[in-house]
Amino acid sequence: MEEIEMIKIEFFHDAICSFCFPMSARMRRISKKYNNLDIIHRSFALAWEEESFIRDFGSREAVKPEVLNHWAAANKNDDEHRFNIEGMYKTDFNFPISKPALKVAKAAGLVAGEAMYWDVFDRIQHKLFVESKNIEDITVLEEAVKETNINFSDWKAKFEDNETEKAVLADLELAERYGINVVPTLIINEKYSLAGAVSQEEIESALDRIINSQ
Questions:
Q1: What is the mean pLDDT of the chain?
Q2: CA atoms of 133 and 21, how far apart (whole Å)
Q3: Which H or E element spans position 41?
Q4: CA 148 to CA 119: how far, in whole Å?
Q5: From the CB of residue 186, how many other CB atoms can be counted at a distance below 10 Å?
Q6: DSSP states of 167-193 as a string?
Q7: Could you tell me whether strands 37-43 and 7-13 are parallel, antiparallel, or unpaired per DSSP bridges?
Q8: I want to staple 197 with a disulfide (CB 3.0 to 4.6 A). Which of 19, 76, 105, 158 is the partner?
Q9: Among candidate residues 201, 167, 182, the one with its CA nearest the CA of residue 193
Q10: Is the dihedral of CA 21, 103, 178, 180 positive or negative?
């Protein structure tokens, strides 16, 4: 029997990235359709810490109104149109930074592998985009973790380990080496790049071309 050649896909995303939400659902469907994909989840920080938002928007308070303007476009991009835009308008917290959620998802991946990273990441995004919860709040993040079947104690120990943040930072450095400046981005076999929340058809077309060229 001919051995199937695996295709490596590095999926760069940020939990606060609105277009990463529909892209994750799209990639889940694609992962079920193809049996030769090795999907590796990579961190990208649109706003690693508060200073990033202040630098880009002038203040923390200015972020949410601007970001919510983008949600309408992201909701159109989302095949299921799941964004609760009105719900987020009614909240009284500042739009969250990237760092806490990225560390939470990375800890899950380090404990239980890429599939668990993905499960936790998707639960975190659901908290923000559908449930209108503050994913900078550790109690909300822990709630997302508990909604998966990961061992919570193991996850908590890994989350508090300094090596977890180093692993996130290593992803950010890798993104810089690849020249990534937008998420979502897919890096396929370390040489092909698909940037933005492109359609499932576009992703599959790119994958088919790569498969046929092997």
A1: 97
A2: 15
A3: strand 37-43
A4: 7
A5: 24
A6: HHHHHHHHHHHHT--SSSEEEETTTEE
A7: parallel
A8: 19
A9: 182
A10: positive
